[in-house]
Specification:
about 130 residues; mainly beta; about 0% helix
Length: about 130
Amino acid sequence: MFNRKKQPPIKSLIAADSIIQGHISFGEGLRIDGRVNGNVLAIEGRASILVISETAVVIGEIHADHVIINGKVTGQVNASELLELQPTARIDGDVNYRALEMHQGAVISGKLKPFDELDIGGEKPALTLASNNS
């Protein structure tokens, strides 16, 4: 469903040994391998993708169209299009999503809440359970 859209390029990287204190706003794509103590917000009105690698830690809110998590997040996660939770994903906070793909092993300590049906044109949100075989 979402694979048909061309993903924006990842143009920014927060390296594994980096620690950011404060909020980050980004356009298009951002990959986090380090630590961010602050909110990570995609610029509204532009397609966005956020990748949080398995070495990454984010303490703060996340807002982006497409969010892929393989690391640890403490705070609310908002994915306006697709949220992908990889096997080592750990989220301590509420999660809002339009479509969700959750792999075996991912853990969420919080509420899962699809965006209201009014926000998504009356469609029910997609929920995909990924298997280890894919």
